[in-house]
Write a structure and sequence with these properties.
CATH architecture of the largest domain: Sandwich
Number of domains: 4
CATH topology of the largest domain: Immunoglobulin-like
Helix content: under 10%
Number of helices: 2
Distance between the termini: 108 Å
Number of strands: 31
Strand content: 35-45%
Shape: rod-shaped
CATH class of the largest domain: Mainly Beta
Structural class: mainly beta
């Protein structure tokens, strides 16, 4: 007998091959009372065009069963009964009630009785098996398989009382789950972010239970299984944190299945990763804070490697772009000026402002020229060393800790500037 086409729960692979699954929930066969039941009690994961089978299972408990009859009704707008096959419940010889089988649309009636020589005994087993096809026009829904007019007769032809009836259901689900991105943390479509990771979070909703749903993130041609962080029947939430991304533009979308094997897909989104930072600022005179043109500004790593250099414009402005995040020294230098250096840390996508001032060599009083007043200050410091009250670091041109003849010659070179 052709049984229900079983569908295996989807395991989404890179090729996104979907193997549909037919979920089965079976009733227990043990009975504490005479019973007539649909088995399996719940058939799920059906789509239009699918075929499946159910058994009408009868248990007479401790009663000697001579005869049995039952009606089975179903929704003919969704299901078509294609065959009814009697089981071996009552053994042989047995007589089938005239007219047993598929009646008008939506009804099956079947009756069987033991005949002479077939002694009634307590039994439990398949009374009939019914094959169904899901109609092509069947809408999503849960369709009842209802048992009625059941009769179980003892060897005296008396009715067995207290028969428990367990109806069944068939669930048709041809609609894929809906997938929506959650913002935040998911970036909006066509946006630029300044970190090297993207957190993708989605809500998945469906007509039916999503307990076994799997969601997969498709990221630029590769697949990542997402983590289920929230589940509530017909709704589920999944996330995946895509890390270690290099600068560039990426596309991504999310696939998710339901228990019927229907595959849903989100919109495709695009995100641009730009983790490079920038450094900019103005180099000014220490004496009047106006910008200095033509200052060489160098970007130096902690190990002393120069990675970039530029020159200030007429306003003293400079800029470094596409700076890899990290720690640097920004050095500013120009002839006749003291060198200045600043330590800076650049984060992902961060623009850091580094303004600096340069002091004119020999301008000991910081008035923008090297004149007689500066010579008097130099004379005061001449012959001193670090630690002496008269020591002036601005007079120590060679920075050797002493203001001596070499510094005097250097001062003479800039005097009058």
């Amino acid at each position: 007998m052709k049984r229900a086409r079983e569908k295996t729960l989807i395991r989404i692979i890179i090729s996104l091959l979907v193997i549909a699954g037919l979920g089965i929930v079976s009733i227990g066969m043990a009975s504490a009372a005479p019973s007539v039941s649909i088995d399996p009690q719940s058939t799920t994961g059906l789509s239009p065009g699918d075929t499946f089978s159910i058994d009408v299972y009868v248990d007479s408990d401790t009663y000697n069963l001579k005869a049995c009859k039952v009606d089975l009704t179903y929704d003919a707008s969704a299901l078509t009964a294609t065959a009814v096959t009697p089981g071996t419940l009552l053994g042989s010889p047995a007589l089938t009630e005239p007219g047993s089988g598929i009646q008008e649309s939506g009804l099956i009636h079947y009756g069987i009785a033991r005949t002479s020589g077939n002694t009634p005994v307590p039994v439990a087993g398949v009374f009939i098996t019914v094959d169904f096809t899901v109609n092509s026009s069947a809408a999503d829904g849960v369709y009842m398989l209802d048992l009625s007019n059941e009769a179980l007769n003892k060897e005296t032809n008396a009715y067995i009382l207290g028969v428990v009836v367990n109806d069944g259901t068939a669930t048709v689900d041809a609609t894929p789950p809906e997938i929506q991105f959650v913002e935040p943390p998911t970036p909006k479509n066509n946006t630029e972010i300044n970190v090297n990771y993207v957190n993708v979070t989605v809500n998945v909703t469906d007509n039916f239970n999503l307990e076994d749903t799997i969601a997969v993130l498709w990221w630029d041609g590769g697949n990542e299984t997402m983590t289920n962080i929230e589940y509530a029947g017909t709704e589920a939430r999944f996330y995946f944190n895509k890390t270690g991304l290099t600068d560039g533009t990426y596309s991504y979308r999310v696939y998710a299945n339901d228990t019927a094997g229907n595959m849903g897909v989100s919109e495709t989104r695009v995100v641009t990763i730009s983790t490079k930072g920038a450094i900019s600022g103005t180099i000014s005179y220490a004496c009047n804070e106006t910008g200095i043109e033509g200052v060489t500004v160098a970007l130096i790593t902690q190990s002393g490697t120069e990675v970039d250099a530029t020159t200030t414009n007429a306003s003293g402005y400079y800029e470094f772009v596409d700076v890899t995040p990290g720690d640097y020294y920004v050095n500013a230098s120009k002839t006749l000026f003291w060198l200045n250096s600043t330590y800076v840390t650049v984060g992902m996508g961060e623009t850091v402002t580094v303004d600096m001032m340069l002091l004119l060599l020999g301008d000991l009083d910081n008035d923008c020229d090297v004149d007689w007043n500066d010579s008097l200050l130099f004379a005061d410091a001449y012959g001193s060393s670090v630690g002496d009250p008269s020591y002036n670091v601005l007079a120590d041109f060679d920075s050797d800790g002493d203001v001596d003849w070499d510094d005097y010659l250097a001062f003479a070179d800039v005097y009058g500037t």
